[in-house]
Automatic annotation (TrEMBL):
PROSITE patterns: MFS. It comes from the Bacteria. GO terms for molecular function: nitrate transmembrane transporter activity. The keyword Membrane applies. This is NarK/NasA family nitrate transporter. Belongs to the major facilitator superfamily. Nitrate/nitrite porter (TC 2.A.1.8) family. It holds the Pfam family MFS_1. GO terms for cellular component: plasma membrane. The lineage of its organism: Bacteria, Bacillati, Bacillota, Bacilli, Bacillales. Keywords: Membrane, Nitrate assimilation, Transmembrane, Transmembrane helix, Transport. It is found in: Cell membrane. CDD domains: MFS_NRT2_like. The chain crosses the membrane at residues 21-43, 55-73, 85-101, 107-127, 139-158, 170-191, 212-231, 276-295, 301-322, 334-356, 368-387.
Amino acid sequence: MENAKKSFWKSGHTPSLLSAFLYFDMSFMVWVMIGPLAVVIAADYPMDPLQKAQLVALPILGGSILRLVLGALTDYIGPKLTGQIGMLLTLVPLVIGWQFVQSLEQLYVVALLLGIAGASFAAALPLAGQWYPKEHQGLAMGIAGAGNSGTVLSTLFANRIAQHFGSWEIVFGLAIIPIAVVFVIFTLFARNSPNRPAPKKLSHYASVLRQGDAWVFCLFYAVTFGGFVGLSNYLTIFFNAQYGLSAVRAADFTTICVIAGSFFRPLGGFLSDRIGGIRMLTILFGGAGLMLALVASMPPLAAVVLLLFAGMMCLGAGNGAVFQLVPQRFGSELGLMTGIVGAAGGLGGYALPMLLGKLYQMTGSYTPGFVCLSGVALLALVLLVVIQLRWRTTWAAAGGLAAAAPASSGNSGQLNS
């Protein structure tokens, strides 16, 4: 075990890996900040359930669109410069939200622009992943991707800061400080990998999207990452509406659930390296589907928190499992695929709050929404079971490593189910 640890830490560039994590962590904190604040903001700008859902979904939509832009920039100018540009542009919605919002419509614009921070995914993961060999991709991408733990900072502190200062706007202003600090650290310590692939043309995007596997990964990530970020942004509203909790207490319970998804992402990548990404995803899709189905029964608060904790754990670990597989199949197009798959994950995250908000407004209950979410996870499981039969014969021919076999097995042409 010690040798394995040494081989991982010596096989890449640790300062770049940690810089990628910090960049993603602070960006993610900003990206989802409006989710926990939504209940507080509603006191100033009264909203119906669908308007609340729209407010917390818009940053996810913005991130989904802009990830394609940052993904292309990562290919052309490198992940480091792309990350620096991303952090500077993130200051724009923070300043506007702090000083210039006077209406709900203006707040929608700020929410959409917060997607700049969400697009950090397309630079942070290639910055980390391009330094590491395929056998360590799952863990490297998992560590960098654990920056989604920035969600915890938002859910834990955003409403407390707003309550302390009597203003939700000050939260936007104070968020400028950690972004500025990480910008300095990132500038000093991050380095582009010398193994960066050549820039991709628009025709390369079309070429990748003509491959069915790219769409499969998009769907899987729309379920795992979309489920995680969508619930992260919406659960404060859910706990407030369903269980009558205050803004701070609702965000605290959201924090408990978010911690599971955030900190199990690296474990998902690590275990996928050991037992295979497909085997891992099979377990996780099944677990997420079951937990969300049980949540649909609207059990008592303590039970629903435990169920959401387990469900978010499955979704977070699933993020790591998906990105253990992506470099295996699309190693030479990692930056491009990170943007495409990340965008799909963002679209899933946008759809989730809209679905829950719309069905709650129509029925007065969250049960139909969570039944639908459970069904989506179980459909992803069925697709995974079916598609792996084709992957057994096509992955090796496409130039990938074993689709789901442990990296140490040495069977580069076989797929463990």
